[in-house]
Here is the input.
Amino acid sequence: MSRPLRIEFPGAFYHVTSRGNERKEVFISQKDREKFLSYLESATERYGAVIHVWCQLSNHYHLLLETPRGNLSEIMHHLNGAYTTYFNVKRKRSGHLFQGRFKAILIEEDEYATQLSRYIHLNPVRASIVARPEDYEWSSYRSYIGKSRTPSWLEKDFIHGYFADKQRVAQKKYREFVEDLLGQEYSDPLKQAIGSSILGSQEFVDRITAAYLDGRERDSNVPALGKLSRQLSLEEIHSAVEAVFVSSKKQARQAAMYFCHKYSGSSLRVIGDFFGIKESAISVGRRRFESRLDDDEELRGMVKRVHGVLDK
Here is the structure.
């Protein structure tokens, strides 16, 4: 059996799923489910994983996660390995628990993060376990709509930021976004993935292909600027931006947040602390800055100059 394609770099987003061997149950008791969540927490603490969305069903799970350190394989080895050890010891069994290697699809987060979060949260409804997603206890949906406590390791602000700046408004609009598909036929967004490996716009697919798959020189616009051997620090990025955006401190700050979010590999929490603002403001600011790039040729030129400084 051929090994699945793995594309890993700092700041990458993935939809990840792993199924029980022979489709057998991997979550049998409440203790099993809670133990798995504890390993999600330790993955954030030890390996820097950012968990945006999760959902457990009886024989598989779904995650939407981000890898600031570019270490997806390490994260998943910890998660599946630790849980398998726990499960086997508890039930006095041996051997594989999960079916082969985990499946991970690299996604263009700005295009597909909200769609995939909805797809994941609607899994229990599609499986006819519950009629409404908020009735299912073992997913992040209840946290997203303010119906249950949010664990410290769950990152909601990125996806909430697409709907509103204020949490209560974002919770309401996100709930409406998810429930809009209840009772309707809808397509699986993952079916649009190229080669079951990459999901995004053609531009995104082309950049990833050029940078990681065809041996050509890495594109400076690829996340982390193709510098996989050394992750750029927030300070380095901020200094490079200030060297180019000298005429306006406000514009320099906006550009610095954009570059730090897109290229540093740091989590929203770390970037927010660096700039002294909330995590949600970072993702919202990035989208606003990107929308200005489409219409401002001078701004695009300045961004290109920053790329040049960072790529030296």
In short: The first helix runs from residue 30 to 47.
